[in-house]
Amino acid sequence: CLEAMGLAAMPDYRDRLSAAPSTVHLLVGDRDAKFRALGEALAAAAPGLRVEVVAGSGHDPTLDAPVPTAAALARALARVAA
């Protein structure tokens, strides 16, 4: 049952990333090896994707490291606004 709720059952939109009309910002936790590796692979395949690793965080940066996550979001928003 839990497998159906996991990543394997989610739609795969990776092919759409390279056609995104603006930069895509992806925040990943430094202790989430699976999604950090996925983010790095996505960034290599999609030039418009930017990965930022949130220190002190696992799978949920907003819960694990709210202050560094807020700072990362502020940096991403500043890049978009520039």
What's this model, at a glance?
The chain has 82 residues and is of the alpha+beta class.
Features of the shown structure:
82 residues; alpha+beta
Description:
The protein has four helices and two strands; from the N terminus they run H-E-H-E-H-H. The chain has 82 residues and is an alpha+beta fold. Strands 1-2 form a two-stranded parallel ribbon. The longest helix is centred in the last third of the chain and has 16 residues, at 66-81. It is globular. The mean pLDDT is 87.
The backbone outline, from C-alpha atoms, is globular
Provide the residue-averaged pLDDT: 87
Looking across the biggest beta sheet, what order are the strands in? 1-2
Q: Could you describe the largest sheet, including whether it forms a barrel?
A: 2 strands, parallel
What is the first-to-last residue Cα distance? Answer: 45 Å
The number of strands is 2
Treating each run of at least 4 consecutive H or I residues as one helix, how many helices?
4
Oligomer: single chain
What pattern of helices and strands is seen along the backbone? HEHEHH
Number of domains: 1
SS-based structural class? alpha+beta
Percent of residues in β-strands: 5-15%
Helix content: 40-55%
Radius of gyration: 14 Å
List the uncertain runs. none
Give the topology, please:
Layout: H1 14-17, E1 24-29, H2 33-45, E2 49-54, H3 61-64, H4 66-81
Parallel strand pairs: 1-2
